[in-house]
Amino acid sequence: MWIKKLSLILLVLSCITTACKRSLENKDKAIRIGTKKIDKLPYYNTADFTPSWLPTDDELKMFHKIPNFKFKNQLGKEITNKDLRGYIYVANFFFTTCPSICVKLTNNISKLQEEYFEDDEIKFISHTVFPSHDTVEILQKYGERNDINPEKWYLVTGKEEEIYNLAREAYFADETYKQTHDKNGFIHTENLILIDKNGHIRGVYKGTLPEEIERIQRHIEILKREYSNG
Fold it and tell me: Where are the transmembrane segments (predicted)?
């Protein structure tokens, strides 16, 4: 009787071992497949962020790009989209007196700035959504308090209407506006937007979350490989 019980136990243990082995093999396979899936980043052409994978060159010519803009940075220097042409960059919207999500955003972008401090391919741009308060002088003090390198990370201000239009129509950053279409609403978003060297949107991230900052780093590296491979 005990022999039968022992045989049954051994059979169960064998099944468990086999199942665990298969589970690990499947997991490894899934990881490999997952890695393969993000060898390239998608393009985003619309405010609903529906990904477009591997559009043709002709299709890409018609794809959404960040349009021309002109603002002043924390040093009073004029910044246009030409200053970001040929760079991979991360954009966001904030205001200096924000006590909540903007603090986390600035802290997390600071980590990215540190990571890519000596990487000439990468830049950052933060647009104030409270330009009546956030003057060049205020932005300069804010940048100094947060150890922001003005050559690497632009804090920009300008006309409110232009900033808000850019946030809503170019970067698709204002999620509330997508639902209400209320142009009088205040923009308060945690989104970080990843832009490639040609001005295309290639990713959107919740910039207050540490895991999203890790994800944007992985995606930046994918974009860098995309350009290094031609």
Answer: none
